[in-house]
Amino acid sequence: MFEYLARCTGVRCDGFFRKWFSSNGGVAYVYVDRSTDPDSNEAPSRIQGIGAIRACANGFRIGPLFASNAKIARTLLAALSFFPVNDAVSVNRSSAPNAVTSVSLDVPDGNDSAVELVQRMGWNATGGAVRMYHCTDANDRPAALLDTWFGMWNLEVGP
């Protein structure tokens, strides 16, 4: 899992990843491709996506959501979106019956597939953000695979 996250983000942060995915109030799913490609030297069980959802002040927030393609991202997003309805919302409503329960996701602008996916799934944009880097050379930006970012950790942390 840490290898996949490092490929997606361009940085190795195992300690951060471990704490993020072991925190209370949420759940994480990993999409594993168990098919064997006869033309590939890769192991037959390889991670193709990771997504998490956690409780936040007024509902739930999905992030991160990394996937090798939009189909995998859709599968993870559908499962993560169902989590609050299935489990956590009943707990939330019992302690605060009038609590606002929503699910939010910060989608990176630079991944057109991510934007198209959430629009097709009926999500509504409520704001916008632009990812910016201060570098003397454009090649100094993190070597992240933006096409795998379908949802960021949150705007403060980034991908």
Architecture overview:
The protein is α+β, with helices and mostly antiparallel strands. The chain has one domain: Aminopeptidase (3-Layer(aba) Sandwich). Helices cover 32% and strands 22% of the residues. Strands 1, 2, 3, 4 and 5 form a 5-stranded mixed beta sheet that branches. It is globular, with a radius of gyration of 17 Å.
Summed up, what is this model?
The chain is an alpha+beta fold and 159 residues long. It is 32% helix and 22% strand. β2 and β3 form a beta hairpin.
Total domain modules: 1
Mean pLDDT: 75
Measured as a percent range, the helix fraction is 25-40%
Order of helices and strands: HHEEEHEHE
Taken as a percent bin, the fraction of beta residues is 15-25%
At CATH level 2, the architecture is 3-Layer(aba) Sandwich
Cα shape: globular
Number of helices: 4
Report the span from N to C terminus.
Answer: 15 Å
Low-confidence parts, pLDDT < 50 over ≥5 residues?
A: 86-100
Give the number of DSSP strands: 5
User: Rg from C-alpha positions?
Assistant: 17 Å
Major beta sheet summary: 5 strands, mixed
Q: Just give the CATH class.
A: Alpha Beta
Q: SS-based structural class?
A: alpha+beta
CATH topology: Aminopeptidase
Helix-strand layout with pairing:
Layout: H1 2-9, H2 14-21, E1 26-33, E2 46-56, E3 59-67, H3 70-95, E4 102-105, H4 112-120, E5 149-151
Parallel strand pairs: 3-4
Antiparallel strand pairs: 1-2, 2-3, 3-5
Features:
single chain, globular, alpha+beta, 159 residues, Aminopeptidase, 32% helix
